[in-house]
Specification:
Radius of gyration: 26 Å
Mean pLDDT: 79
Low-confidence stretches: 354-414, 416-449
Number of strands: 19
Number of helices: 12
Largest sheet: 8 strands, mixed
Length: about 450
């Protein structure tokens, strides 16, 4: 018989409200996470049109509207209850998962940190209904509304009961960075789902939008512009064992630095259409890409689109709440398949580096010989000018040409709230052929708020 214990018990259960808030703030970490979760819900509901509207960088108001399936009346009581989902019934379903969401946490977590209303209508409903939810995700009020089929979720006063996080995002620089992250994830969804119309509006100003496109190439043109797309090479690669399918748009061999950026915001990587951060894949592409350019040691990130499809049982998206990182069952084998594809495009990185070095040495030798032939100072000067004209690295010339073209294009009118002179180091210009394209320029850190 066990001995009786004495003393005061120190382990106590957390109050339900506290436990809910602690777990919810791990799922809803920022405006970016709210938008990502809600857009994924829209895509899972077979929406072909999704609009995201923000006020005050999303901290005052977030509205995500779609024309998807809607939520049936019998399900609305449970739509914001934690771990209620239509996408899984038991653990084995993870091996055949084809949806973005699966845990049933997003809407319930959002209710814990913001004021939430849901307006929804299915094809079977005669009219839409608006539901008001409390912090526990319980419907406290409902009323008829005037909306077509689909769902609109409105969240106001984000992090009103999490003062430290609210204060953290009060800094103007952080708020602008958050808006840039939202724009980037919208672009990622835009290129991987070409048949979906997407828009992002901030303070009644359109930040970005994409109409339906026939394929990935057309969707990428909307994001990158025709000039950049002309420098990308389309590749399709398949492997039977392991079972891997790859669709890629990669910089053409020997392409100029205009198809690279200082950050990885235009390096789109997807596993089973899920936008992810895979450093191993990105590092592999950079290795082969930079092996084909004179700046082989560059730290710049190539502009690329890489969509990798594997059997659902081979991937684990349940690594962290925001699902931007995944684990692969046969990671090394899948990376080998990707490397085979890169070799078919760029060849061996070692050989490419040698070729690039040889070309540079050839240019230097030609320049030296031309200078040696001339004897007078005027002839030397003329030869140097001719040599710099014909022998300068083509990538620099192309980059300068693009820069000059951008400078001569009229700038679009910006929203005052975006402060275009400082946000994200970007200027948006109008392209008469295909809408908006983006030009980069450097801004000293001291000028950023």
């Amino acid at each position: 018989m066990a001995a009786m214990t004495t003393g005061t018990r120190t382990l106590q259960p957390l109050p339900a409200a506290t436990a809910r808030l602690l777990s919810s703030t791990q799922v809803i970490t920022s405006v970016f996470s709210v938008v990502k979760e809600l857009v994924e819900n829209s895509l899972d509901a077979h929406a072909t049109s999704v609009d995201v509207k923000l006020e005050g960088f999303g901290f005052e108001k977030i509205v995500v509207s779609d024309n998807g399936d809607g939520i049936s009346r019998v399900d609305t009581e449970y739509m914001a209850q934690r771990h209620y989902t239509s996408k899984l019934t038991h653990q084995a379903d993870l091996d055949s998962l084809e949806t973005y969401g699966f845990r049933g946490e997003a809407l319930g977590s959002l209710c814990a940190v913001a004021d939430v209303t849901v307006t929804t209508k299915t094809a079977a409903d005669d009219f839409s209904m608006t539901y008001t939810l409390n912090k526990q995700g319980v419907v406290t009020n409902s009323k008829p509304a005037h909306q077509g089929q689909g769902t609109t979720i409105t969240a106001t006063n984000l992090f009103k009961n999490v003062p430290v996080r609210r204060q953290y995002y009060n800094a103007p620089k952080r708020r602008k960075e958050e808006l840039k992250r939202v724009e980037d994830i919208m672009m990622a969804f835009g290129v991987i789902t070409p048949d979906v119309r997407l828009s992002l509006i901030h303070n009644k100003c359109t930040v970005w939008h994409k109409n339906k496109a026939p394929d990935h190439r057309a969707a990428l043109v909307n994001v990158l512009g025709t000039s950049t797309m002309s420098l990308l090479h389309s590749v399709e690669h398949r492997s039977i064992e392991p079972q891997v399918e790859v669709l890629a748009f990669l910089p053409k061999p020997g392409s100029v630095p205009a198809v690279s950026r200082a950050t990885a915001d235009r390096s789109f990587v997807f596993f089973n259409e899920r936008p992810v951060q895979m450093k191993g894949v990105e590092k592999l592409v950079r290795k082969y890409y930079h092996g084909n350019t004179p700046d082989g040691g560059s730290s710049r990130h190539p502009i690329m689109f890489l969509s990798i499809r594997v059997p659902p049982a081979e991937i684990d998206p349940n690594v962290e709440p925001n699902k931007t990182r995944v684990l692969l069952h046969n990671n090394d084998s899948i990376l080998s398949v990707i490397e085979e594809m890169l070799q078919s495009v760029y060849g061996s990185p070692e050989n490419s580096k040698c070729a690039a070095t040889s070309n540079e040495e050839s240019r230097k030798t030609s320049h030296t010989c031309n200078s040696a032939i001339d004897t007078s100072k005027e002839q030397n000067t003329l030869a140097e000018e001719q040599s710099s004209t014909f022998l300068a690295p083509t990538e620099r010339g192309h980059e300068d040409a693009l820069t000059d073209a951008f400078k001569n294009m009229p700038l679009l009118e910006h929203c005052e709230a975006l402060d275009p002179e400082k946000i994200s180091g970007r200027e948006r210009v109008e392209n008469g052929n295909d809408g908006h394209i983006t030009a980069d320029y450097e801004i000293p850190d001291s000028e950023l708020l």
